[in-house]
Amino acid sequence: MATIQSIAGELEPHPDVALVERVRGGDVSAYDTLVRKYERQLFRIAQHITQNREDAEDVMQDAFLKAYEKLDQFQGNSKFYTWLVRIAVNESLMRLRKRRTGKMVSIDDDIETEEGSVPRDLADWAPDPEQNYGQAELAEILRKTIQGLPPGFRIVFVLRDVEGLSTEETAETLGLSIPAVKSRLLRARLQLRERLSRYFRKKKGLKETKPKEAKPKETELGETGMEK
User: What one-character-per-residue DSSP string does 5-20 give?
Assistant: First the structure.
């Protein structure tokens, strides 16, 4: 049974709502607070999609500007962050379209919505590098591996597993059904696990086949300590 505290928590508005209302009332500093709160998350999402730092910075700025201009369209039915991410994702995809000279890019590229049977047990999908890598190196390996995922899988994985959006928020942000989000997330995790496993197996194989340094030959000494 839900407690009074949990019910009150559900009814309590998100702090962002108060900031949005202040912005609508003319308090620009309140919007600065929202920008500082979410600029890093938006930049990461944009960089994962565009795979270009300069494009990601432009997308982040354009997304905040567009959100400010269309703030009257925010109804409060979803979190402000979810609404902001949706704008950033759209701006990122538009940036890709321009970069690819008219070639249409969509989160649906190369994605089949009807899936066959796939493994369900993904509790331990990440490979164990056995502490052979530093945190910075592991982060770089993971970043590059995520970039290698198909666009439709990559966006879902970044929003759900990297940025921590719920399945429902991810579906709302991308305009997908909840089953489609779950399916793509599952396939993204499977592909990521396989790619990382191959990477670490390859690295391990290289270490095992690396030639060992020859030990210096011991010199036999006589009773006087002189070489024979």
Answer: HHHHHHHSPPHHHHHH
